[in-house]
Write a structure and sequence with these properties.
Blueprint (H helix, E strand, L loop, with lengths): L2 H23 L2 E7 L6 H16 L4 E7 L3 H10 L4 E5 L22 H9 L1 H8 L7 E15 L14 E4 L3 H9 L3 E4 L5 H7 L4 E4 L1 H6 L8 E16 L1 H5 L3 H35 L3 E3 L4 H17 L3 H9 L4
Parallel strand pairs: 1-2, 1-3, 5-6, 5-7, 8-9
Antiparallel strand pairs: 3-8, 4-7, 4-8
Helix pairs in contact: 2-10, 6-11
Length: about 325
């Protein structure tokens, strides 16, 4: 056998052996976009997800974390497959999965334990299942937190103090209607536009959880903070169906476990920020109203809330309000 034939034969024998090795080393990159700095509660969630998934799969899955302040744009990118996943607040999600708007009703959740219990239980899992029909996969509930009002014009101690304020809201009809009911001028815009709008006086204020106010240094463009806690804002990891559908059973289990690790880290960071954040914002110079008459705000919102709920799922809202831990 001449040298050329021996080389060719050796290559032919080695080829079937090399293919499984090459396939085993194949790497899948998952791009996850979220709207906040990496040091935020969202950053904590996606970082924990990345570390857990890469570790569990021996590096066969690599997670690429990107910031995108435009949450609606990120969800659209997931839906068409331009990126694989997005961690987003539920504010813009109602434009894709309308049933999620039920979670945006003001004063729906009593406290954080109530919200987490609902989302992690049967109600939350049933809601995640609704994403499939919209060309999305709802993977796991994370947390944005209870939303509070800030503004640059005056101290807000009562619902009447909100009247006339131009308040940036998310592109969310439930939130916009609530602020209209309070006499504010709601101005929906993407989060990426918020700081310039506050600097230029296009809007007077905005509403977000403590963790978001902290992470984005909104104290630099807002003087007054009122702990209204008017809406609990869930967050959710949304992924493209193609990504999940291509996974084998073991990888999908690792993926879901990593998502749960991300949720735990996200919630822990949010709890820590809420515990220390108010004092930190006061230290940074904000005037903080901590004693808020929630009943007064609920009364002021009642007429608008009744109109909002007529367009939502009354049976679901009742289940949420009646939920109690076992």
């Amino acid at each position: 056998m001449n040298l050329t034939r021996r080389v060719a034969l050796a290559a032919a024998i080695a080829l079937p052996l090399s293919l499984p090795m090459a396939q085993a080393q194949a790497q899948t990159t998952i791009t996850v976009q979220h709207p906040l700095p990496l040091a935020s509660h969202y950053g904590a969630g996606v970082t924990a997800f990345k570390e857990a998934l890469e570790r569990a799969t021996g590096g066969r899955y690599r997670v690429n974390i990107q910031r995108n302040d435009n949450e609606r744009e990120a969800i659209e990118s997931v839906q068409i497959g331009t990126i694989e996943c997005s961690l987003t607040s539920t504010g813009p999600v109602g434009n894709f999965v309308p049933e999620v708007r039920n979670f945006d009703v003001p004063f729906l959740f009593r406290d954080t334990a109530h919200a987490r219990g609902v989302l992690d239980g049967e109600i939350g899992q049933q809601m995640l299942a609704r994403f499939t029909a919209r060309g999305l996969v709802g993977v796991v509930w994370m947390e944005n937190g209870f939303r509070h009002l800030t503004n640059s014009r005056r101290e807000v101690n009562a619902p009447a103090d909100i009247r006339g304020l131009k308040v940036r809201t998310m592109e969310n009809q439930v939130h916009m209607r609530a602020f209209t009911q309070l006499g504010a001028l709601p101005t929906p815009m993407a989060f990426s536009e918020l700081v310039p709008a506050l600097q230029q006086g296009t809007v007077d204020g905005q509403e977000n959880p403590i963790a978001v106010i902290l992470a984005n240094n909104l104290n630099q463009v807002q003087r007054f903070l009122t702990l209204t806690g008017h809406v609990y804002s869930p967050a959710i990891l949304i992924c493209n169906p193609g990504l999940v559908g291509r996974m084998n059973a073991a990888d999908r289990a690792a993926f879901n476990e990593a998502a749960r690790a991300g949720a735990a880290a996200n919630r822990a960071k949010n709890s820590a920020d809420e515990a220390a954040g108010v004092e930190e914002l006061r230290r940074r110079g904000m005037t903080v109203v901590t004693q808020v008459d929630s009943a007064a705000f609920q009364t002021a919102l009642a007429p608008g809330a009744a109109q909002i709920e007529q367009q939502l799922d009354s049976a679901l809202l009742r289940r949420i309000r009646e939920w109690r831990a076992n």
